[in-house]
Structure formats: structure tokens, C-alpha cells
Amino acid sequence: MNEVKFLTVAEVASVMRVSKMTVYRLVHSGHLPAIRVGRSFRVPEQTVHEYLHEAFIGEEIS
User: Fold this and answer.
1) Close Cβ partners of 32 (under 8 Å, ≥ 6 residues apart)
2) Contact by Cβ (8 Å): 9, 40
3) CB proximity list for 36: less than 8 A, separation 6 or greater
4) Which one-letter DSSP state was computed for residue 17?
């Protein structure tokens, strides 16, 4: 079975080079799926890469 690696909001912000608030907005809007652990969110690493890939491809086509 593949192991899923989860990232914190701060780690996602670092990978995407955006603020933590931007990541929270993406999570709350449903654009970036996440799970809630206590009072914080965790985002699957693969999901971040897929989101960035989609965003990059989407801009290229336009």
C-alpha cells in the first residue's frame, strides 16, 4: 500500500510560495482538499502537486 504524506498549512505555503492565508482560502473554498486534525489542517502532498500541475496547465492553455 502506498504511504500518503500529509503537509501542514505552513509546509504547503512554502511549497507553493504563497502565504498561509492563501492556503487556508484554498482549503476553505474546496480548491485544495484537506483533512482536519484537531484545530489544524493537513493536506496530502500529492494533492498539492496535482493542484499546481492543473494550475500550470490551465494557464498554458489560455
Assistant:
1) 12, 23, 26, 43, 47, 48, 51
2) yes
3) 42
4) T
Residue 28 CA from chain centroid, whole number? 11
Q: How many CB atoms lie within 10 A of CB 14?
A: 13
C-alpha cell of 24? 487556508
Give how far Cα 12 sits from Cα of 7, 18, 28, 29, 61, Å: 6, 8, 14, 16, 25
Which mean pLDDT values do the consecutive 10-residue runs of the chain (62 residues) have? 88 96 97 95 95 79 45
CA distance 48 to 61: 20
* Residue indicated by cell numbers 507553493: 16
For residue 31, with 0-12 CB atoms within 10 Å meaning exposed, 13-18 middle and 19 or more buried, which class applies?
exposed
